[in-house]
Amino acid sequence: MNISCESPIQPIFHPLLEAHNLQLFIKRDDLIHPEISGNKWRKLKFNLQIMQQQGKSELLTFGGAFSNHIHASAIAGKLFGFKTHGIIRGPLLDEANPTLNDAKRFGMTLHPVNRLTYRQRHDPHYLDELKKQFPNAYILPEGGTNLAAIKGCMELAQSLPASDYIICPTGSGGTLAGLIEGTSSQTTLLGIAVLKHAGYLIEEIKQLSNKAKEQHNWQLLCDYHDGGYGKFSDELWRFCQTFTQQYDIPLEPIYSGKMMYAIWQLIEQGYFASGSVITAIHTGGLQGLNGLKYRGLI
């Protein structure tokens, strides 16, 4: 089970960067694959290998109604020929939802549960019940983040040019943890939290990465969530649209758009030392734009 993880690195030129004497590059992981893009493939890659080694023929995972991870897992099942199951935070499924429609089209069986049940997704007893119910399934956590996912994100780190700063959007913490594991301690790593009250992720990142416990070259910035997970201001969406037009790099306002907007604000605030080289990770997730259009949010 393999997809090439080669993706281009695109330089960005802008008067603001010139004024602060900065170089900015974007790792275009949105271009890894037409449908399984960015960190979702990075996280799936080694999990699918373990699934194969364990002789499992099905994948079961968790997500919300517009989840990039659910979408990517469903496509992986179709591409590589295994059954997929999605435990969906419900309790009801919206038949017109574009993300879930795609997942069904790719062969995923959707299992809506109420929010109380969904909250048990990390509970060992609940997971034991699911193992009995789906004995042939490899169970993958929400967002795809676990120790196997970290290995895929370490590969991402090793593909990057020498940089003073590496920056990524942070939802579950897996991508940042993998980057910490795979990057020299001389590089500063910044995660831009995309959800409110994200401080708890610091401990979760330390659980995923031993280097994160020992090193102080990384930081989770929690003030650039722009209202919380799945929320965004008109200013942020305008920034995404302008950026897309100027650089032909599509941005969505949930993950990579928030990261780029945060980088722009940090530059304006003089956060980065003159002469710094910055590499930002575009983590994909562009299918989410269809869900935002469907809900009339863009």
How do you describe this structure in short?
This protein has 298 residues and is an alpha/beta fold.
Topology:
Elements lengths: L8 E4 L2 H5 L3 E6 L9 H16 L4 E6 L4 H13 L2 E7 L8 H8 L2 E6 L1 H4 L5 H10 L3 E3 L7 H12 L6 E6 L3 H9 L5 E6 L7 H8 L1 H5 L3 E4 L12 H14 L8 H13 L8 E6 L5 H7 L4
Parallel strand pairs: 2-10, 3-4, 3-6, 4-5, 7-8, 7-10, 8-9
Antiparallel strand pairs: 1-2
Helix pairs in contact: 2-7, 3-4, 7-8, 11-12
Can you characterise this structure?
The chain is an alpha/beta fold. The chain is 42% helix and 18% strand. The protein folds into two domains: 9-34 and 153-294, 3-Layer(aba) Sandwich (Rossmann fold), CATH 3.40.50; 38-144, Rossmann fold (3-Layer(aba) Sandwich). It is built from 13 helices and ten strands. α7 packs across α8 (174-182) and α11 crosses α12. It is globular. It starts with 8 loop residues before the first strand and ends with a helix. The model has no long low-confidence stretch (mean pLDDT 95).
CATH architecture field of the largest domain: 3-Layer(aba) Sandwich
Strand content: 15-25%
Major sheet summary line: 6 strands, mixed
Classify the helix fraction into a percent range: 40-55%
Which oligomeric form is depicted? single chain
Spatially, the strands of the biggest sheet line up as: 1-2-10-7-8-9
CATH fold descriptor of the largest domain: Rossmann fold
Query: Per the principal axes of the C-alpha atoms, what is the gross shape?
Result: globular
